[in-house]
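hey m, so remember when u said the tokens were messed up on ur end? i reran from scratch. heres the input so u can diff it against urs
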Amino acid sequence: MTEKSGVCVLGVYNADLIFRADRQPVLGETLLGTSFGMGPGGKGSNQTVAAARSGAKTTFISKMGRDDFGAAGIAMLEREGVTVLVERVADNSTGAAYIFVQNGTGSNAIIVVPGAAGTLAAADIDRHADAIRGASVFLTQLEQPIPAAVRGLEIAKASGTITILNTAPAAPLDDAIFRLCDYVTPNESEATGITGVEVTDLASARKAGDVLLRKGAGAALITLGGQGALLHSGAASTHIPIFKVGKVVDTTGAGDAFNGGFAAALARGEAPEDAARFGAAVAGISVTRPGAASSVPSLQEALALLARG
């Protein structure tokens, strides 16, 4: 049997269209913004870049259109050293996202159109089962259809690959999916929606974590913004503080940086607590830079930050 290695990510690539302004317009209103940019995005793609830059051999499974956005996305991933398992289709577009970034705070609001990746089905995942089985870690989210995510998790779980479900964006989920997950990684609002426990701090995150464990998850890794993250399992409940590196410029993709870094650290055999701290270091650097995938630091940068404590 071939030894498992690296991270396999199932998810969506989007072309991010990034608008900066002091605030969002209300309906019927037109505002002048201060800047516009375009770059790679999509949770799956962002997490893939984060895992690759964090030192993991990384594979990306998705669908894209036969358009300029798709060509740019594949070229970007290949430059990052990613093995790209992407079907190009003529009858649908590559995903795109509108991202508003508020001047001063770096806070964001996002509208995502998955495009071709929105048609991913279980049969598409079966065609790439060997890549999933060969990975140390399988990571997916909820931007593509949930049945595709479930099938990926099933293949990974059955083969002994570590499974991570990033429950973003928020969506209704059958409890059966959690039994396929070694780690579930919601943020505060997603954890609140899944568990019915309003998550505002570490104490409420622990209560929500208990609910996720009862649903069948192996462990919950709940991200809490400025309060860091909580790694909660039946064995321990550990607070992972944030790394304050500098001024927050843009929080877009911070959760993806965290998840990709966490997955990469698990893939190289780090203990869960150490892997979560590594993910926090990757995210801590990313928010000091503009963009999503473009803001992800290198392995050396993240390790240097961890060494400084």
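this time it looks ok to me. The two ends are 39 Å apart (CA to CA). if urs says something different then somethings off w ur setup not the seq
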